[in-house]
Design a protein that fits this description.
binds ligand L4NPZUNZ, eight-stranded mixed sheet, binds 2-oxoglutaric acid, 7 helices, alpha+beta, binds fe (ii) ion, five-stranded antiparallel sheet
């Protein structure tokens, strides 16, 4: 991390070395969801990187762009107007502060609760019916993709029934979250060789996260050797992250990917992320079919037994960059 005398606008925001053009993720796995080879390709990508780009996923570009433009409209309101949709916790509008434990990023966002298929009725934000309709249309479509992806994972892993993983996020009471992030351009750092941290490094606690962004890059993932690489943006694609819970359910075979966002000094980035989590009471432990076939061929789970509720509680007490699974290792 670069330490610079801060300009007032980026006070308290950690800075990162600006990405080099050569840092692009050359070997990024691209999976065509409509192809018969998708299950194998997904499993391979999740084992190597915990991350892949998904094309031919079936979410219409229209649906993604309608939501993006509603989000842009929301974020272009005055600060006072946006603050009326806050605070972010448990759900609502937030700016710069991420979580409750002191993490800061160069972004503003909406954190939203998702019911079985769409925005939770109990989540009053956003109030604008056109924005809500666009959110609901997108969420319904992206959830279907999440289900297909998790079924493909089960197929490739030889897990029966095929919905063993996807049922956790479609079950009544599943804990799904939706997030709309807006990273404004950070003009103050233009040409200084460093960039503002948009969203600091972390892993996602849930099973899977499906991300769509506008044409501004910024997302980076950490490879297994610790090197950070930039993910080129693609507004037609979805990017899939393995989360901590899926790492445990697969007995360490799929890797929860460390990722972060670097803010751009010229262009704003808008990202839409669906986080598929299970019901609070769901036990998170390696699926029986995968015991004995883990990364080290171990018969026993490497993790203590825990529920999603216990993991989530611990996660929300942690800092963004903490290794949250460490305290659940046996
Ligand atoms: C610092 C934090 C923000 C976060 C909750 C946490 O305490 C640790 C996990 C963070 C994360 C990362 C993925 C998602 O963006 C998120 C909504 C989640 O479920 O876990 C965020 C949390 C957040 O922003 O509240
Ligand atoms: O906004 C992005 O592109 C990624 C943000 C992220 O990783 C998150 O919200 O968990
Ligand atoms: Fe994330």
């Amino acid at each position: 991390m670069v330490v610079l005398a801060s300009t007032p606008a980026v006070d308290n925001i950690p800075l990162l070395r600006s990405p080099d053009p050569g840092d692009y993720f050359a070997g990024m796995p691209v999976v065509d969801l409509s192809s018969p080879g998708a299950p194998k390709a997904i499993a391979h990508a999740c084992e190597r990187f915990g991350f892949f780009k998904l094309v031919n996923h079936g979410v219409p570009l229209d649906t993604m762009e309608r939501l993006e433009s509603e989000a842009v409209r929301f974020f272009s309101q005055s600060q006072a107007e946006k603050d009326r949709s806050g605070p972010a916790y448990p759900f609502g509008y937030g700016s710069k502060r991420i979580g409750l434990n002191g993490d800061m990023g160069w972004l503003e966002y909406l954190l939203l609760a998702v019911d079985s298929a769409s925005l939770s009725g109990a989540c009053p934000v956003p109030t604008c019916p056109v924005f809500r309709a666009a959110l609901n249309e997108y969420i319904a479509a992206v959830r279907k993709v999440a289900v297909r992806v998790m079924e493909a994972m089960a197929e490739a892993l030889g897990i029966a029934p095929l919905d063993a993983l996807s049922a956790m996020v479609t079950a009544e009471g599943s804990d799904q979250v939706f997030r709309v992030n807006h990273y404004p351009p950070c003009h103050a750092l233009q040409g200084l060789g460093c960039s503002a941290t948009g969203f600091g490094e972390h892993t996602d606690p849930q099973l899977v996260s499906l991300l769509r962004s506008n044409g501004t890059s910024g997302l980076q993932i950490a490879l297994q050797d610790g090197r950070w690489v930039s993910v080129p943006s693609d507004r037609d694609a979805l990017f899939v992250n393995v989360g901590d819970s899926l790492q445990v359910l697969t007995n360490g075979r799929f890797k929860s990917v460390k990722h972060r966002v670097v803010a751009n000094s010229l262009k704003s980035r808008v990202s839409l992320i669906y986080f598929g989590g299970p019901p609070l009471a769901q036990r998170i432990a390696p699926l029986p079919q995968l015991l004995g076939r883990g990364e080290l061929g171990e018969q026993q789970s490497a993790y203590k037994d825990f529920t999603w509720s216990e993991y989530k509680k611990a996660a929300y007490k942690s800092r963004l960059g903490d290794n949250r699974l460490a305290q659940f290792l046996k």
